[in-house]
Amino acid sequence: MAFSSSPVLLHSVAAAIMVWAHSQLGKSAIDIVVETQYGGHYQFLTILGLVASLCTMGVALLVDLFPSILVLRSLKRAMLMICMPVEAVIVSVYWTLLLLFPSLILQKDVVTEPTSSHDGPPLARTPLSLDLAMHVVPGLSLVMDFLVFEKKYSQELVKLAVPVVLTCGGMYSSWAERNAKLNGGVFPYPFLTENPFETRLGIYVGACAIGYIYFRVLNALHV
Fold this sequence. Notes:
transmembrane helix, ADTRP_AIG1, FAR-17a/AIG1-like protein, membrane, transmembrane
């Protein structure tokens, strides 16, 4: 069976990096706290996006190996429509806050001792290699796959992006709110913990808007 090596290389390398990133979850500075909470690491949109993107790369590999099975290609395109907006939210929110307001996105490092008695716990920063594997590789690999190896979505399918994005946003916001309720009002991200429900609702809606606009722009740029 003949197939191009280029998509196989992209999909396999991206999948391998994401598998490695997922294997590092138990080694994080906040692991001792997160694993005692309801939802564990799967409270984080980053981790849910990582798993979803990994599954998409897995299906993409199956498409590469068995191109005649049309249902696999349809499944892959449906997963891309879901994962690309989610990763757009993850990348834009994470890197913006990390660079400008790190205390709003990073939890406290409960393992490392403060540098002085007047300082609180330092922020739990992620090693750069793992940071890139979690917050760049998933989104970048999806975009490269879409722009290079996939056709653009028709206008009929683009219209479906609205309910898709709203459904994903509603599911995650409900999941995050439930976890926080069971975890004593503590959200996985400090910027959610520090805001009342009305503000969080605005954040959820804004995140959905980011994902939808990103998808529309990306599809419009596709030639």
